[in-house]
Amino acid sequence: MPGTILVVDDDPHIRDVITFALEAAGFACITARDGRAALQVVTDQCPDLIVLDINMPEMDGLDVCREVRKTSDTPILFLSSRDEEIDRIIGLEIGGDDYVSKPFSPRELTARVKVILKRHRAGATPGPMAAIDVLVCAAVRLDLAAHAVTFAENPIQLTATEFAVLREFMARPRHVRDRNAIIDLAYPDNVHVSDRTVDSHIRHIRAKFLEAGCASIIETVHGVGYKLGTCM
Question: What's the CA gap between 188 and 113, in Å, rounded?
Fold first, then answer.
């Protein structure tokens, strides 16, 4: 799976470990030691994915993510030495696609990078959905080939994971799914994902659609899971 990965961390040893693992898997790597340098690389070289440390000088990873999300849906995998739930929630809610805590396994990190890129590039899952270019549910339109979503013709910027989750709801709009089913559908490579991570992605999708005027894109079925909403 070719691609260029931007590795952002103020620790040169961590940058070297990640770069070595990703290059061994066939990726090209660019590195940056702080947030401001990372933003310049994103502007100049347009990497396919960003591995982004949260705790950095100059500009931390959360601020970098906010800036990137103003203009790009480039996938972002967060790193942090603080294994705190608040980091995970904030990182995912501002547009991160996944999260790995330090110390981490380079093999697991590489696997997560591959999964995120696969989702981001695929557009459609294998099987019957692959033949469908566009999914439409009333005012919501999801273009698989263009990796684009609109509500009432207004574009909505979703991350690769958010796109994958919404795609699965729109493919079968009457189905109610529990968290495990969402994990199986949106994370087909079986990388470990927590229930709270799924909830964070759902909240982020809802917030983006609410801003566009859709108050119930995904509804909660109490005691069961989630289903596609009825906002139109």
Answer: 13
Q: Where are the domains of the chain?
A: 4-122, 128-228
User: Which run of H or E residues covers position 44?
Assistant: helix 35-45
pTM higher than 0.90: no
Return all residues near 122 (Cβ < 8 A) that are at least 6 apart: none
Preceding peptide of 2 cis, ω within 30°: no
Which tens digit of pLDDT belongs to each residue from 113-149?
Answer: 998 888 777 643 433 333 447 788 878 888 887 888 9
CATH superfamily, domain 4-122, is Response regulator (3.40.50.2300)
144-197 residue pLDDT tens: 878 889 998 889 988 888 888 888 888 777 778 887 777 776 665 555 566 677
Tokens 């990372």 — which residue?
A: 38
Cα angle, residue 24 at apex, residues 107 and 92 outer, rounded to 5°: 45
Q: Residue 50: which residues within 8 A CB-CB, separation 6 or more?
A: 5, 6, 8, 38, 42, 68, 74, 75, 76, 77
128-228: CATH class: mainly alpha
Q: How far is CA 122 from CA 35, 63, 108, in A?
A: 29, 28, 21
In degrees to the nearest 10, what's the CA dihedral of 54, 82, 94, 146?
A: 70
Tokens representing residue 71 in the block: 């203009």
- In this structure, is the dihedral angle defined by the CA atoms of residues 95, 38, 191 and 197, taken in order, positive or negative? negative
